[in-house]
Amino acid sequence: MVTLAYLAGGTVLIKLRQRRTGRYVYMPVSAFLLPVYLGVALQLVFYGLSFIWVAAALGLTSLYISLQSELTFRDPLTNLYNRSFLLHYLHNQKKKVPLAGILLDVNSFKAINDTLGHQEGDRILQAVARMLQEAATDKTVAAVRYGGDEFVVLLMDDDPAQTQLFCQRLDRCLEQYNQTAGAANPISLAAGMARIELGTGDTELFFQEMDRKMYEDKAAFYQRTQKDDARAGERH
């Protein structure tokens, strides 16, 4: 009964989180529970024989294999999910799930690498990854390193206020970083947002929309930078 109570409690917690984040994020835990459930059922049918510990061993083995597989979905530098996970998640979601996607790009990142070196660039990417994790809310599905200095954040879109809350939290994280650890080399992010309903939406158009809006934001950033530089030159 104690074993069943633990299993039931774990299952409820997983289901609650899966409703918010999608089934793939918690797949390894489910892989552990299924063999143990089977062992409990067999032990009830064949009373007197112990199947639970054998089932637990199979569950742990399954969990280990699943975790090893999950490593292929992780970016080694930032420990965020990678592009493979993002594509796998979007293409294999069968339910109609509304999502908001935000594509983020570090402004002037090439200049940072060229002037400060790639180690400093890596440090900034890791800092951005930490900020995305700190800004995450209950509606955040995943933060992904899409490639290079680009990141994608997926959020449940049934409550647009949660998307706004995430952006506000990220802005505060950026402000705090620039005032402390990043004071010498402050950073900013260009962002582009799009929405999609998984199971029915066109993922290619989804990425194109995020990309277009992000580059519009980036172009506006460079225009502001050029104007600020021109004003500074005039004052000198």
Short description:
The chain is an alpha+beta fold.
Question: How would you sum up this structure, described in words?
Answer:
- This protein is α+β, with helices and mostly antiparallel strands and 236 residues long.
- 63% of the residues lie in helices and 16% in strands.
- It contains 8 helices and 5 strands.
- A 5-stranded mixed beta sheet has the order 1-3-4-2-5, with helices on both faces.
- Strand 3 and strand 4 form a beta hairpin.
- Helix 1 runs antiparallel to helix 2, helix 2 runs antiparallel to helix 3 (52-71) and helix 6 crosses helix 7.
- The longest helix has 33 residues, at 203-235.
- It is elongated and about 85 Å long.
Tell me the layout of helices and strands.
Blueprint: H1 2-21, H2 27-45, H3 52-71, E1 81-82, H4 83-92, E2 97-106, H5 109-116, H6 118-135, E3 140-147, E4 150-156, H7 160-179, E5 189-198, H8 203-235
Parallel strand pairs: 1-3
Antiparallel strand pairs: 2-4, 2-5, 3-4
Helix pairs in contact: 1-2, 2-3, 5-6, 6-7
Describe the strand arrangement of the main beta sheet, using strand numbers. 1-3-4-2-5
Q: N- to C-terminal separation?
A: 78 Å
- Outline: elongated
Helix/strand/pairing class, anyone? alpha+beta
Relative helix content: 55-70%
Extract low-pLDDT stretches: none
**Radius of gyration based on Cα positions:** 22 Å
The share of residues in extended strands comes to: 15-25%
Q: DSSP helix count?
A: 8
Largest sheet: 5 strands, mixed
